[in-house]
Design goal:
The protein is of the alpha/beta class. It has 3 domains: about 100 residues, Class I glutamine amidotransferase (GATase) domain (Rossmann fold, 3-Layer(aba) Sandwich); about 190 residues, Rossmann fold; about 100 residues, GMP Synthetase, Chain A, domain 3 (2-Layer Sandwich), CATH 3.30.300.10. Strands 2-1-3-6-7 form a 5-stranded parallel sheet, covered by helices on one side. The structure holds xanthosine-5'-monophosphate (XMP). The site of xanthosine-5'-monophosphate has 11 residues, from loops.
């Protein structure tokens, strides 16, 4: 890492991530570390130019009052405290852009040399150093994180990366095809495509409970990936799309060290691999910018969030193939019409779902007894609360007209008007 770095020590400030991002926004790389970072750990970090102590009125982490070790304060680096007037270091009440810029550029003499191109160059070098002549394995779902990791690794080690793409039948329309087209055909990746659709749908047959569905999908994914991986020999590393919020609990008072082994791609931590995690210091918007810098297509990079169990939790109750196809087709129509109406990027998440109940309708003068499609479109900042989006009626009319004519087995379209709370964003 050649770029200058500011280390933020978490002293109980609730806005560590906001401060870290504001510093990065000024072109200087920053990392959040726990309050009990030792001087040795600090000195082992590359190119640290300054230390920012981000406190709060109580300076409490996990219920315990915190102090910074004097040896850290005496490390010889410029130090600025935010909200810690009792410490014998320069202190400001708030980390405004002005305060940060003066600290970075006047006090610490940082260069604004952190950019996505610099990050990519740096990671390519680091990956090569870590991996040497060995091979790396990656579970490539086609989501933003795994796609960016794949593109970085392809740039760093080319065909010594092997990607496994598991199609469990619960992906959106065209997603598996796009993974193959972008990574195998365009980027020349070694990509193993596993068609596990029948296997997943078989396991899910008759299972109506959402939590059981989730567990089955997660467990089966591990089994399928493991089987495909065990056919490959001599692979020492596993790449994962861990990102910074997985490591630092953003907005909380504790900058936890690493929990990376646990949560990404649904893979367990006892697989016999060493981990490569090239985007572990990036926030989500930075991951997207990195994808763009690596030449990934816009619609892959700017994807809306998509749950791990995929369409499996949008085909409500026990999954059947006809309703699953109705979810997939109607979701594709909704996305296409939102894009056409300029709503892509304006609405945080939008999708369709199909319940396991039918209603009476009429088509060509004859009675029908078919499924409804429910549209859901929400605005949110953090997915903890959400409000309903209000697209024009004309857009909703167009979507409805297309769904009832193009999607077999559907005779009715509804719009979900429920905010979160009381409704969660997904129905299951
Ligand atoms: P809810 O439905 O809880 O969803 O309001 C909040 C956000 O989380 C996503 N979500 C999931 N993501 N695995 C995931 O990776 C899941 O099982 C899951 N369930 C919900 C949901 O799409 C929304 O963005």
């Amino acid at each position: 890492m050649k770029q200058d770095m500011i280390v933020i020590l978490d002293l109980g400030g609730t806005d560590n991530s906001t401060v870290a991002r504001a510093i990065r926004g000024l072109g200087v790389y920053s990392e959040i570390h726990p309050h009990d970072l030792t001087r040795r750990q600090l000195e082992a970090l590359p190119n640290v130019r300054g230390l920012l102590l981000n406190g709060g009125p109580n300076r409490v982490v996990d219920g315990q009052p915190v102090q910074v070790a004097p040896e850290v304060l005496e490390c010889g680096l410029p130090v600025l405290a935010i909200g810690c007037p009792d410490l014998s270091v320069p202190n400001r009440e708030q980390a405004t852009e002005e305060v940060l810029a003066a600290f970075l550029f006047d006090t610490c003499r940082c260069e604004a040399n952190w950019s996505m191109d610099a990050f990519v160059e740096d990671q390519v070098e680091q990956i090569r150093r870590q991996v040497g002549d060995e091979r790396v394995l990656l579970a490539l779902s086609g989501g933003v994180d795994s796609s960016v990791v794949a593109a970085l690794l392809i740039r760093a080690i080319g065909d010594r990366l092997t990607c496994i793409h598991v199609n469990h039948g619960l992906l959106r329309k065209g997603e598996s095809e796009q993974v193959i087209q972008v990574f195998r055909e365009r980027m020349g990746a070694t990509l193993i495509y596993v068609d596990a659709v029948d296997r997943f749908l078989g396991k899910l047959e008759g299972v109506a409970d959402p939590e059981r569905k989730r567990k089955i999908i997660g467990a089966e994914f591990i089994r399928v990936f493991d089987e495909a991986a065990s056919r490959l020999e001599g692979i020492r590393f596993l790449a994962q799309g861990t990102i910074y919020p997985d490591i630092v609990e953003s907005g909380t008072r504790t900058a936890k060290a690493i929990k990376a082994h646990h949560n990404v791609g649904g893979l367990p931590d006892d697989l016999a691999f060493e981990l490569v995690e090239p985007i572990r210091t990036l926030y989500k918007d930075e991951v997207r910018a990195c994808g763009t810098a690596l030449g990934l297509p816009d619609d892959m990079v700017h994807r809306q969030p998509f749950p791990g169990p995929g369409l499996g939790v949008r085909c409500l109750g026990a999954i059947t193939r006809d309703r699953l196809e109705a979810v997939r087709e109607s979701d594709a129509i909704l996305r296409e019409e939102f894009r056409r109406a300029g709503l892509e990027g304006q609405v945080w998440q939008y999708f369709t779902l199909v319940p396991d109940l039918r209603s009476v309708g009429i088509r060509d003068h004859a009675r029908t007894f078919e499924y409804p499609v429910i549209l859901r479109a929400v605005h949110t900042v953090d997915a903890i609360t959400a409000t309903v989006a209000h697209p024009d009626w004309a857009v909703l009319d167009r979507i409805t007209a297309r769904i009832i004519t193009e999607v077999p087995g559907v005779n009715r379209v509804c719009y979900d008007l429920t905010p979160k709370p009381t409704g969660t964003i997904e129905w299951e």
